Amino acid sequence: MTILRSSLAALVLLSYDLITMRYDLITMRYKLHLVRAKRMTAGDSNLISRACQSEACLHRGKAL
User: Fold this and answer.
1) CA terminus-to-terminus distance, the chain
2) How far apart are CA 45 and CA 38, in angstroms?
3) Running DSSP on this structure, what letter comes out for residue 1?
């Protein structure tokens, strides 16, 4: 009976470890997605600001 209890306890601990590892992987994947999204939006805003600056330069050139 003690062998059954110990094997059941080991199985419960193993399943708990697998669940927590899966949760950690999901949260890491989500954090990585957020970091990529921030980088992409930062890159997009840089491109937009550069485009606006170059457009402003063109308008200034036409005005002169």
Assistant:
1) 94
2) 10
3) -
CA dist 49 and 32 (Å) reads 26
For 33, other C-beta atoms within 10 Å of its C-beta total 10
- List the domain range (segments joined by +) for residue 63: 21-64
Q: Match 């997009």 to its residue by tokens.
A: 44
For the chain, the domain total comes to 1
Tell me if 27 is assigned to some domain. Answer: yes
Task: Please check whether residue 46 lies inside any domain of the structure.
Answer: yes
Is 0.85 topped by the overall pTM? no
Residues 8-42 have pLDDT tens digits of 999 999 998 888 988 888 888 888 888 877 776 66
Tell me the three state secondary structure of residue 51: helix
Does some domain include residue 8?
no
Residue ranges in 1-64 assigned as alpha helix (H):
2-63
